[in-house]
Structures are given as C-alpha cells and as structure tokens.
Amino acid sequence: MFRRMFAMMLSGMILFTAFGFQPATAQSTNDQPAIEKTRSKVQKMGVGSNARVEVKLRDNTQLKGYISDADRDSFTVVDSKTGSSKTMSYADTSTVKKAGSGLSGKSWIILGVAAVGALVTWAVVKPALCDGGAQTRGPC
Asked: Are 65 and 9 in contact (CB under 8 A)?
C-alpha cells in the first residue's frame, strides 16, 4: 500500500514539474525585426496631434491617441479624450496602425446600397432580356 501511494505521489510530482511550470523567457534576438518594423512605422507616422494611432500591446491592451514623442527605444501615446500619456517600449508593442484605417461606416453603407441596387437591377433586367429561354445570347 505504501509503495503504491509513494509511486503515485512521485509520478504526480514529475508530471507537475513537467507541465505545471512555464519558464519565463527573455526577449530574444529573433524579435529584433519586429521591433525594427514597429520603430519604422512610428517614425514614418511622425509626432504630433495629426499622428493618430491605434496601438496593441503584447498583453492585449489597446491604446488610441496620438504620438507625442518617439525615441530610439520607446514612444509616447497621448489619449485624446483623457489627455493621459503612456510611454511604452517598442518591444512591448504588438501592432501599431493608423487610427481609422480601413473603411468607415459610411463607406460600408454605400457599398451595401450599391450591391443591393445591382441585385435588384439584375432581377428586373434579366427577365426582360430572357424570354423563357428562347434567346441564347446575352446574360441568359
């Protein structure tokens, strides 16, 4: 009985040490290209209230604002609404993109209206052009 209990405890401890601990890894040199890419994006966007950005950090927090200062190792983002500033290093940053990049809500509405208009036009025009399959050319 004692041997069996000891064997189970020993195997449990071995499994715990193998799967229970996640080793902490330091920033390696293979992250360097990503850091350089982020640094070049920030430098290209510039500094000032017109340099509006959306920043996603490695801990999945997101910041929106403008870049007020950009150094060699870090940059500062100021939140437009609250006025608070946060300085972060390029290594802590996951992605940096211009704020509002992509299609706006108005653009999506216009595209949707155009698609619905094209479908309605096709539904009306096709029966007028195709008279029961007698025509073999055109959209039939």
From this structure: no
